[in-house]
Specification:
One of its GO terms (molecular function) is oxidoreductase activity, acting on CH-OH group of donors. Keywords: Oxidoreductase. Belongs to the short-chain dehydrogenases/reductases (SDR) family. The protein is α/β, with parallel strands linked by helices. It has a single domain, classed as 3-Layer(aba) Sandwich (Rossmann fold). Helix content is 36%, strand content 11%. The protein is built from 8 helices and 7 strands; from the N terminus they run βαβαβαβαβααβααβ. It has a 7-stranded parallel β-sheet, with helices on both faces. Strand 2, helix 2 and strand 3 form a beta-alpha-beta unit. It is globular and about 45 Å long.
């Protein structure tokens, strides 16, 4: 991808991929090899960005995929079409991921249709730029935590009862969990919580043979970026990392696939870092 992104912004969270220019790159780069044959995956925030790229890659590798999303119906329809084109069976459910009852109902719909869930990718998130910590309202704080970490808890609680040995949970955290972001204090806090959640949950579920890992992307060109930052900031997005450019969703999806399939059968409680070369601990 070129470093050049035209100035742009969107006025709604978590943003719409169809409105972005240039369009994010989500198609898999390599032919599938059946690594998820006969598996069923649930991906939250699966309509666009990293979630879409993972959904299409999973379908190419043989999985049926249910995407949970907020209200970006056009993006969701496009993702389902791409899942179908890759030979998978797609399913979409619109909901508020921070609503426990809605999450439970959605997971049950997936089980009713496909009979099981083998892979959960907790990807849905929102973020809101604030220059001053004092300006983060109680409503914003609650909303960000409900979407970013409560939603992950709710999804895990809903799927665990029918997950079996060999199944996998992948939580999407962020580089901000490790080095912070002073305009995204509440968002960074949720991503740190996700990191701790991943480590604690991996220990708890190890005896069941269910692996729990995380992916911590750096600056990735997704709808959340123009939906969060002013246009002039979007124009220079991602240029401060060693590789000098933002990453693409299809550069993150292979990390998620690796953690979802048996290639990573001896890995749990760990975090992968597709972040353009930023050196961080953990």
């Amino acid at each position: 991808m070129s470093k050049d992104i035209p100035a742009q912004e969107q006025d709604h969270q978590p943003g719409t991929e169809a409105e972005m220019e240039p369009k994010p790159e989500f198609m898999p780069v390599y032919a599938g090899s059946g690594r998820l044959k006969d598996k069923v995956a649930v991906i939250t925030g699966g309509d666009s960005g990293i979630g879409r790229a993972a959904a299409v890659l999973f379908a190419r590798e043989g999985a049926n995929v249910a995407i949970l999303y907020k209200d970006e119906h056009g993006d969701a329809d496009t993702t389902i079409d791409m899942i179908d084109a890759e030979g998978g069976e797609g399913m979409k459910i619109a909901l508020d991921i921070g609503d426990k009852q809605a999450v439970e109902a959605a997971i049950q719909q997936v089980i009713d249709r496909f009979g099981r869930i083998n892979i959960l990718v907790n990807n849905a998130a929102e973020q809101h730029v604030q220059d001053n910590v004092e300006d983060i309202s109680e409503d914003q704080l609650l909303r960000t935590f409900k979407t970013n970490i409560f939603g992950q808890f709710f999804a895990v609680q809903a799927v665990l009862g029918q997950m079996e040995q060999g199944d996998s949970i992948i939580n999407i955290t962020s580089v901000t969990a490790f080095r912070g972001q002073d305009q995204l204090v509440d968002y960074s806090s949720t991503k740190g919580a996700i990191l701790a959640f991943t480590r604690a949950l991996s220990s708890k579920l190890a005896e069941r043979g269910i692996r729990v890992n995380a992916v911590a992307p750096g600056p990735i060109w997704t709808p959340l970026i123009p939906a969060s930052f002013p246009a002039d900031k979007v124009e220079s997005f991602g240029q401060n990392v060693p590789l000098g450019r933002p990453g693409q969703p299809n550069e993150v999806a292979p990390c998620i696939l690796f953690l979802a399939c048996q290639d990573s059968s001896y890995i749990t409680g760990q975090t992968l870092h597709p972040n353009g070369g930023e050196l961080i601990g953990g």
